[in-house]
Specification:
Distance between the termini: 39 Å
Number of domains: 2
Order of helices and strands: HHHHHHEHEHEHEHEHEHEHH
CATH architecture of the largest domain: Alpha-Beta Barrel
Structural class: alpha/beta
Oligomer: single chain
Length: 350
């Protein structure tokens, strides 16, 4: 049973703190709470078990930078082999199934093609994202930080992306093949349908998610040309959150972009580009009517978390429930495929 999905086994203090942070994120609670427990985990990670136990015995845990009174109580309980009340409470509140359906499909997913780290607008290091994906039972995770034009999200220039690829390679070398952090990008679709990164840089990546983030109220005909231009680009593998809508959440609500969905999805089916089923509850993108249209036109799909924090990686449950309700066959969902098949598909048009 994976570390992040199990609730009953004994845990060390670092694992306990990380589990609490994960559940806080899964429950979409305040970011400052998450940072407090992740910070405490980072503070004690370099220490030996004996050093942590000695600090507990001496009552000096809070002398460590990043360890507050609440996290110190959690650490002390974990050292003593006691289930901390904070963890027990969060397991009750946020540890259960997120949805009533889609569980068989969720078990069939081998990975996630859309995730963000603190290299762009995510909240955690890419190493933490990879570790959590492993604990959730994934075989792979595609890291898709933003492209340069999206400055509000700290999009990566070609130079920064090059540096990130070196870090990804180092992480994979350390993991030794048990799990793969795949090289990717969420690349902006520019006004004319081109992609916001050089072809050379895009060619170095494993998987590319192309999304519209600007001028969402563009005229329908222009938006259709824009999206089809991106879909026809041989570097595009996944069309991300196609309508750009927001239906709930602290960012407010936003109406969906207008475009000829039949034309766009027909292009996706012809090119072998997957339509993303974005699992974030505030997006539910594409809307049900468009999801069913893409299904009927023969599109491939990718069920993605669009996670900006480790605890959000579990939001795949929502997308799986929607895909199951829509009757989409699992083999049409590219992240049910094993890694080599996925990579072969992603590189086929280059």
């Amino acid at each position: 049973m994976s570390d992040q999905s199990a609730s009953g086994e004994a845990r060390g203090p670092v694992s306990t703190l990380r589990r609490i942070a994960f559940l806080l994120e899964r429950g979409r609670e305040d970011t400052y709470k998450v940072k407090a427990f992740r910070g405490a985990a980072a503070a004690i990670l370099p220490l030996s078990e004996d050093d942590v136990a000695a600090a507990v015995a001496a009552g000096s845990l809070t002398d460590l930078p990043g360890v507050g009174a609440s996290s110190a109580r959690v650490i002390a309980d974990a050292v003593d082999g006691v289930l901390p009340e904070r963890l027990a409470e969060l397991e009750r509140e946020h540890g259960g199934d997120l949805t009533a359906g889609g569980h068989d499909l969720r078990r069939a997913l081998r990975g996630d093609l859309h995730s963000h780290s603190d290299w762009s607008d995510g909240g955690s290091p890419l190493e933490e994202m990879a570790m959590t994906a492993m604990e959730l039972g994934h075989d792979y995770l595609v890291l898709t930080d933003h492209s340069p034009r999206l400055r509000v999200a700290n999009g990566l220039s070609a130079e920064r992306l090059t540096r990130q690829l070196g870090v990804v390679e180092a992480v994979n070398e350390h993991l030794g093949g048990s799990f793969t952090l795949l090289k990717g990008i969420e690349v902006d679709i520019l006004d004319d349908g081109s992609l916001d990164q050089t072809p050379e840089m895009l060619g170095r990546l494993d998987v590319r998610v192309a999304s519209v983030h600007s001028k969402l109220k563009m005229d329908a005909a222009a938006m259709t040309r824009r999206m089809i231009g991106a879909v026809r680009n041989p570097h595009t593998n996944v069309l991300g959150h196609c309508t750009g809508r927001l239906v709930t959440g602290n960012r407010g609500v936003r109406g969906q972009s207008q475009f000829d969905a039949k034309a766009v999805f027909s292009a996706c089916a012809e090119e072998g580009v997957a339509v993303e089923i974005n699992s974030r509850p505030e997006r539910r993108d594409p809307p049900t009517r468009l999801l069913e249209l893409a299904r009927d036109l023969g599109c491939l799909f990718s069920i993605d978390s669009d996670a900006h924090a480790p605890g959000q990686l579990d939001m795949l449950d929502y997308g799986c429930a929607r895909a199951t309700e829509a009757g989409i066959d699992a083999d049409r969902i590219v992240n049910t495929w094993e890694r080599d098949r996925l990579l072969e598909w992603a590189a086929a048009r280059l």
